[in-house]
Amino acid sequence: QPYCDRMMAAHSQTNTENTIRLLTLEAILRKMAQRHLHPILWKGIVLADSFYPHPGTRPMGDIDFAIPSEELAAATEVFESLGLKQIHDATTEDAVYFGNAFGVVCDVHHRVRLFEGKESLDLTTELKPQHTNAEVFPVLGPNAMVAHLVFHMNGHYDETGPVLLWILDLAFVLRKWGELIQPEILQKLLPSAEHFESLLRIVRFLEEAFNESFPQWLSAEAKRVQPFTLAEILKQRHWAIWKLDRPRGWIKFMAYKLGILPKIEQILKKSIPAASVASAS
Fold first, then answer.
1. Which domain holds residue 151?
2. DSSP state of 227
């Protein structure tokens, strides 16, 4: 019963947070349409609204946008007019972040390297939102959505290992859009054969662990690779989170098991020179 109570509490909290995000997004899209801007949505918020069974079943940290670089200044004015201020510390070469007092964060990419030079491959489409009054969601199309989800997962693999939530993202996208995936275009959008193999391993895992069904061509391709297993996913995630490929990671992990992690972290900070810490990390 305590487990069920925690699950219901998490669902309720996620639903509340995502409802706030969806209401904020509705206002953003309305103002951007008035300014004739061309945002594209991807990942979490689109999945929560249109792919998962309920918005409360897909937690997320931010709303992901892509915006043409020449429209970034006007888009910034839209965000700021709605109380979303730029988070300068989070700015990267390709993206700008905005946040408000309600905890809504927008990750706005003005450059998407994955799709550069591939604009002719029908990258976008529109969805009718399920849980907001916005007229449409401009989103990545089926091939681009799958390519981006695989690319994103592989890009964070060293930090996070395989993340079950992201694997489920692919499951729900393929459940809704699997028949629309075009193998030739998908492989052109993926940056390497390694990324395609990652997708195939996920497909096999979903077939064997959850009895998911996929288009015949995708299932046939997946048969040539070994599937992920749940044990492998959990082990690799554990390894990545604790950084067990480094000596310092093992020290911190063993300290955690012994219940003395805060003390060990203080000792490491005081006794290991900065250069040594950097090399050990």
1. 141-241
2. P
* Digit-coded pLDDT (tens) for 40-58: 999 999 999 999 999 999 9
Where is 109: in which H helix or E strand? strand 105-109
267 contacts: CB under 8 Å, gap ≥ 6:
none
Cα end-to-end span (Å), the chain: 41
Q: How far apart are CA 100 and CA 102, in angstroms?
A: 5
Domain match, 80 and 25 both? yes
User: How many structural domains compose the chain?
Assistant: 3
DSSP 174: H
Confidence of residue 270 (pLDDT cuts 50, 70, 90): low
Tell me which amino acid residue 27 is. Answer: A
Helices (H) and strands (E) in the chain, counts: 13, 7
Predicted confidence band of residue 233 (pLDDT cuts 50, 70, 90): confident
What φ, ψ does residue 18 adopt, rounded to 5°? -70, -30
In a shared domain, residues 47 and 162? no
Residues 10 and 108 in one domain: yes
7 shares its domain with 132: yes
Render pLDDT for 102-147 as a digit per residue (tens, 0 to 9).
999 999 999 999 999 999 998 999 999 999 999 999 999 999 999 9
In 3-state terms, the chain is what percent helix, strand and coil (to 5)?
A: 60, 10, 30
Domain co-membership, 123 together with 146: no
